[in-house]
Every structure is written in structure tokens, then in C-alpha cells.
Amino acid sequence: MTGLPKQKTLPLFPLDTVVFPGGRLPLRIFEQRYLDMIKQAIANDTPFGICAPAWGTPVGAPPLRGDPAAPCDVGTCMRIADWDMPQTGILRIETVALERFVIRSAHAEPDGLLMGTVEDVSVEPAAPIPDDLELPVEILRHIIGEYGNAHFPEPHELDNAVWVGYRLSEVLPLTLSIQQNLLEMNDSVMRLRILAEFLKKQIN
Known about the structure:
This protein has helices at residues 32-44, 134-147, 161-171, 176-184, 188-203, and strands at residues 7-14, 24-29, 48-51, 74-87, 90-108, 114-120. Strands 1-3-4-5-6 form a 5-stranded mixed barrel. The longest helix has 16 residues, at 188-203. Helix 3 packs across helix 5. By secondary structure, it is an alpha+beta fold. The protein has 2 domains: 8-120, LON domain-like (Archaeosine Trna-guanine Transglycosylase, Chain: A, domain 4, Roll), CATH 2.30.130.40; 131-203, Up-down Bundle (Methane Monooxygenase Hydroxylase, Chain G, domain 1). A hairpin with a 5-residue loop joins strand 5 (90-108) and strand 6. The chain is built from 5 helices and 6 strands; from the N terminus they run E-E-H-E-E-E-E-H-H-H-H.
């Protein structure tokens, strides 16, 4: 008998960005509730969640203190890889994206920090690149060559549809809603086909 999905509580950081597993995101933190969140994550070596604002019905509690929207149902778990405090009241952090999660419920703390009860989304298994989808691979290879390992740390899994799709979804000029849809997909080849069609339109 299969057990129920394991749930956990995660502090949520709503941002106008979508992060894909394996990606890296530098952040500058200055708002007090998020400074407290990040300090606790550093002290306890615990993750936090990043999620884009929702466009539909809010999840859990309504937004507080001027927040534009509740989070989308699916976000990404983040680990802090490095940090520094260049001046009092400002934290600069380097984060690495781990697994995706789905929010089952959310509530706001007294300071406005969103806390979510979440379940991890299954990790997508590596998948080969179909022969007719070499265009996105070549485009990504060119982008990596131009920007280097600082933006795309090794290993470069250019034969893996999951990795190629995630990295292109991060760097191409897609709308936030399209990026969110790509994050929520569990079909790596279909994600790559959507990106290939976008690239063909840009080229033509």
C-alpha cells in the first residue's frame, strides 16, 4: 500500500521569477521579515521556497501588507550556498534550486511572512533528446559558451531533455506565466518541444 505524500512546512518567498531545479539565483534581502527568514535558514541550514505570484484564486490565506498576490501552487525549494552582509540590514545570498513542491495550504505569520504546507513534486527522470529537438540544444550550447560556467556551472547535461529544458526556460525571454506553466509540467520532452517552437518563431 502506497503511503500518503510526505508534507513539510516551508517559509515562502513570493517573487516575480520562476526558478527551475538545478538553477542558481542571487538575491539581495532587505525587508525585515525576509531577513529573519534567511538568517534562520542560514543558522539551521534549512531551505525556503520561492514561488511566483498567482494569477487566479489565492492559495491559503489572503495576501497581507500590500503583497500583490498569493503564491502559485507550484514553487521551488531553495538552498543557500553562500552569503554575505555588505552593510547592516542587507543580506546578499547565492541560492541553488532543489526540488519542486506543490503548496497544499498557506497562512501568513503576524509579520506577513507566508508559511506553506507543501509536498515535494517527483523528480523528473533524465530523458534523451529526440533527434528532431537538436535546435534548443545548440542554442543552449551557444548561450553557455557566451556566458560561461559562472552562469552555468558544470556538469552540463546537454544530452538530458530535463536539464536542457530547465536551463532554457530560465534564460529565454518568456513571460512569467509561460515559465510557470513549464515549471509545472512533468513531461520533459513536451517542455522542450514548446521551447523549440518558441525558438523557431524568434529565428523566423
